[in-house]
User: What shape does this take?
Amino acid sequence: MSRRHPHGAGSGCLDPTVAVKSTFGAEFRRFSLERSKPGKFKEFYGLPQHVHKIPNVDILVSYADIHGDVLPINNDANYHKAVSAANPLLRIFIQKKEEADYSAFGTGTLIKKKNVLTKLFRPDKQRKKPHIVISMPQDFRPVSSIIDVDILPETHRRVRLYKYGTEEHLGFYIQDGSSVRVTPHGLEKVPGIFISRLVPGGLAQSTGLLAVNDEVLEVNGTEVSGKSLDQVADMMIANSHDLTITVRPANQRNNIIRKSQTSGSSG
Amino acid sequence: MRRFLRPGHDPARERLKRDLFQFNKTVEHGFPHQPSALGYSPSLRILAIGTRSGAIKLYGAPGVEFMGLHRENNAVVQIHFLPGQCQLVTLLDDNSLHLWSLKVKGGVSELQEDESFTLRGPPGAAPSATQITVVLPHSSCQLLYLGTESGSVFVVQLPAFRALEDQTISSDAVLQRLPEEVRHRRAFEMVEALQEHPRDPKQILIGYSRGLVVIWDLQGSCVLCHFLSSQQLENVCWQRDGHLIVSCHSDGSYCQWPVSSDTLQPEPLHSCVPYGPFPCKAITKIFWLTTKQGLPFTIFQGGMPRASYGDRHCISVIHNGQQTAFDFTSRVIDFTVLIEANPEAALDDPYALVVLAEEELVVIDLQTAGWPPVQPPYLASLHCSAITCSHHVSNIPLKLWERIIAAGSRQNTHFSTMEWPIDGGTSLAPAPPQRDLLLTGHEDGTVRFWDASGVCLRLLYKLSTVRVFLTDTDPNESLSAQGEDEWPPLRKVGSFDPYSDDPRLGIQKIFLCRYSGYLAVAGTAGQVLVLELNDEAAEHAVEQVEADLLQDQEGYRWKGHERLCARPGPVHFEPGFQPFVLVQCQPPAVVTSLALHSEWRLVAFGTSHGFGLFDHQQRRQVFVKCTLHPNDQLALEGPLSRVKSLKKSLRQSFRRIRRSRVSSRKRRPAGPPGEVQEGSSRAERTGLQNMELAPVQRKIEARSAEDSFTGFVRTLYFADTYLRDSSRHCPSLWAGTNGGTVYAFALRVPPAERRMDEPVRAEQAKEIQLMHRAPVVGILVLDGHSVPLPEPLEVAHDLSKSPDMQGSHQLLVVSEEQFKVFALPKVSARLKLKLTALEGSRVRRVSAARFGSCRAEDYGEHHLAVLTNLGDIQVVSLPLLKPQVRYSCIRREDVSGIASCVFTKYGQGFYLISPSEFERFSLSTKWLVEPRCLVDSAETKNHSRPRDGSGPEKASGKARNSGSQSDGEERRSGPVMEHALLNDERVLKEIQSTLEGDRGSCGDWRSQRVAVGYGLSNGGGCS
Assistant: This one.
């Protein structure tokens, strides 16, 4: 019952209503939406809860698009996209938020011969074949990425922070410190710039890619060695709309291990 | 992207750059910070001043200046010229002696350090044994007598500083040669005075602090005479003929002693306490000088009645029944009296008294009745009242120049007409090619006009805005306070007066139109005055207007100072700049930007709340615009500093508490209880030190519209350009804010014939929001040839080509972070240069300047001179925004130096290196104002004594300057003046550790100087 149904069950594309097949666990329900006036995501969100009789459970809604990809519905934009692209049946999948498995999302997830729902319910199976993971799907805008993995030493991490508008905060502090470098004369203590604090709820903290005591090595491609704290701070602020910083993480255990030549921007 | 921003390597362009740009620090104007010693050479007629940072500065005739810096950066304690020589010896507070000489190199004199020396005692002797208290250069110029704290007089040979141990005059040797009755008294202790016999170089006088004075025969090693006073000796003066000695003492008395070989121990001829009978302070130095009239001049420092006038800094002059106690505004460092230089002359005939006070140099004419002061042509006390802003105007038309000088000469009537008496050396610098004015605004509401054309920064005229306002103190009261029959006969001299009646009077912005003579000044309490130059005194009322910058914004409450209260009714104004309009901003926040257009008769002003435009022809407000962000509460709190400093001091005190707690807890377990107390106090000390070194955190946050002070108006600019469409140009006003917003207003100014009938209209035409929201620090419009638009009236006076109105105009907006060029009228972005994003430095000052070529007479280019927050100076090309050159100029820690910088229109600039000194620098190869002078001992009328056989050495020197010392000798440390201003070792170390990068650039700078040589100077006329 959880298998894919062939397309074309409904009539032509100009049908003013969209048939929705909602799957939650082992059960499914059907309802319909008006194609021209789908309404807001917030209003839609209540429908699956209602039809599956799980009114107070936080759910994660996803749908299968025409390419067979499982994509989330979590805002007005992708909701409208899902409704308008339904041909004519819109298949949606409901998961409880606490049980959600984000890794299921992504390119070609549905096309693959593997059953989506078996994957959803038995995530342990999935470990055998890891997927390329897209970041948190709460919002489809990228907030951060690790870049240039192939050209940087493994101990370094280049993080790009994307900032939209003025409503978000970058949310971190830097300060002077000293780090130890290997030089021809042995180990030497050199002054460095370090992340000293992350503001809770700020962009820097939410990415999980920056941490307190990470040493800042570069800002948008410019090395910071020899620059004062004020200079580095000013450089970061001047680049704040598209900030790329290269750090040496204080915690070196989560480094990306390169096996072979991977693509430049993984993650 | 960055690839294109790198300077190109086009060899032709590189060559041209060498012809156009070159960096030099040329002169230090003003009064040396923290002077500590004074020296004067009667034969060279040159004055020397030493400072606590180890600098020595020599001044002769106007334009003759030299500067040297001791490598040690220790305070200069004494300066002595070798008689008749171009050489001088300095004593530093680390007890080292240094020999400097003026040597001629390439036709100009140069000050160089030749030797240095530290007196060493015998092994095991106390350090005080060799602590030098007095230095006496012998007239033979080969020996130096050094009096010490131990009472011994050591002898060293010049110029190599070879100690002649066999000639040491120890106190024991003197004691043995004294009669019994003197010997039993402990008459010794340190040497306070050493003098050579005025006529006989074989005799010297030694004065010991306990009151014993002996005349010592150098050849016979015996005591010729001795004098014993009951009081502690302070100093001694030997009359010119050698027959009389005058000693001064710590109880405020002085004694005269006759010198004759027959009586071995004479009694004082005369002894008196000039300001007795109540206890007096010490007389620390005395001069007893003979005159033609027969009556001597007695000039002494101190001696005031301890209880009532003990806090005064006085020098008394007594002559012919007249007595005046000159009362100085700051501590007297030292003084000297200018007398007949020829040692053969029978009489002293003093003509001037030169007093070095802590904050100014005062010269008093002793020949003119009433002893009036002489106006110094240099060493001006720039900081008589603290400098709050400065403004430079290049190339002043002769007419305006003469009118300002005429107005100023009326203010200087109390000065003596005597020629400047310190006139040694010859200035070889060519006459300045143009007349430049530097205007400084001061905390007390005055504006001073300085002649900045040449090496000497001379005060031309002083404007006071105080009369317009009602202040607590009436200016007329303070002057006539002194009665006739007062005792002591005090007379205030000097201009240093750092106390401001009302901080709101402070001047913050100045704008002078050099063609019309209109001047606008704006101050701390939102006052904007428009002034006009009038050659006659006048009495008129100043029209008052209030500009409400908050307009319709509701619910704001200004918590800062109140606005100034204007004086009602007509006010009397001296000839000079007379105010006729007063605009008062409401709320009365400090005026942060000001622009004046003398052709359109408009003045624009901005504060942290908004900006306004005022028509001073019709005396009508054209418009006001509030720039305040609704959430910006801080802007309303009042003066910015208060908010910030409170926050900072709170944070610091918290940190201090936390630190001291932590460190004392750590210490506690160690040692017995007795030590704990001490340990914790020490811990507190270290805690305090740590507190200062505690790491500072910087928050990384994008600028947002809600940041504080985004509405702060940073820059205002008038331009006649294409604002609305590309076919018609119109007058416009541009304003840039702290939040990266640029407002453009189209103005309609009625034609001249209907100027009074129709109102000026303004309409907002454009608003640009820079994405990066950094403060806008400069706005400039470039004409069709990419040349900055000329100043108002410049074209009308045929001094500038009219701007190209055919091609398309471009708008240049300079923010703290980047330079951006927009096409007009569409305001579409053309190109930009990012500064902060790439280098981390921010623009502090920017100004367009014309750089002339040193090779081609009429070739010049317009570029931007930029000062960054790191103290670097860069030249950025127009209109392509390519960085041309970069020099490091100011230490990055020197925030006040960076804030004080002004650029001229021809690639020079000034910044404050101390509260009282401007450093002048030049970026141009063509415009270079620096001293070039020659001092030659042969040209002077002196005369080392023939019998010495040495004759005047043909020593002459070479000039300048600020540690230029470019001859590449290894002893030259190439010091930079500002470094010396920091005496604190810890701070220095800290700076050094953070400034690794600066080392290299400092070296670069020096090598540049070397390459420059002295062949270049002020180029020809401007084109």
Remarks:
- The mean pLDDT of chain B is 82.
